[in-house]
Give the backbone structure.
Amino acid sequence: FVGLDDTLDFDAIYWESTATINESDNEPNVDTAGTSAKFPAYNSVVGSTMRLEFVEPTEHNVHYYDMGTCSDGLSLTKSACVALGVCEDSQWTTEADCIAQGSCDETSHTNQSDCESNGTCSDTSLVTEQECVDAGADWRPHTWTPLAWQAEEWSDGLTALELFSGPEIMLQGDVLGYSGGCRDGLLTQDFSGDMQFVYQNQFFGINGYKQASSGSTARNRINKIRFGYGSDTEQHTDSGWYPQIGIGIYIRTYRYLQYDDTEEYSTAWLDPIDTNGCGTYGNGLGAAAEDAASNLWIR
């Protein structure tokens, strides 16, 4: 359960350790009077779907589907994993290219179409299939054997502890910095009109981290979020994204010898701070961070 305090901000020990907190508060949050609590199930229950249930400032569910691991040990999402594999001929790196190659039992034919459209007749004096069939002989088409493709395998299931102790997983978005202007609305997973994002850098995912640095004397920002959405307002090469809707949030904005401000929230549902010419999509709620409360479920 994730309350309006900062007990479960991004850097809280509870995300990446077996430590629990407020185990006796076992009733789900229903409003902002709720508490932040972590239970032993976080450490031990294996699930493939995570659901972030907002109860304030609006009722809305945000999901992460297909929690698990890839057999390559590297791919972080199921879609990326199943698209990967190894061809028996290493010069082919995609499944489509791999299986398009192969060999014919008659080596003079080097592609599948030529191979399978030709063959041999039991009467070796007859060359074409039609001649063979008309003569009442047996026609045997040549056989094409494609190269073998060994796909990577996705294994469903992680604990929340394993998930949040792992690397950043960007499920949707583009956070590569300013590169020619504003972007499309990229955050469509469980999007609601009560959300509002900027048509610039955008992020939806797990363990998000971005440091946007403009130099020692300019404004800098460090953004972190355990699960949720963010978008930014900057249009320059150092722009990052600003965590807005989710859990485990940390925002540090600083300028040398001028200011150093830190915001830490267990959960929040915020609108963008401004649009900087790119414009926004979604209506937003105009809520403050202290208006938010949520629950996190794994199954």
Summary: The longest strand covers residues 242-255. The mean pLDDT is 89.
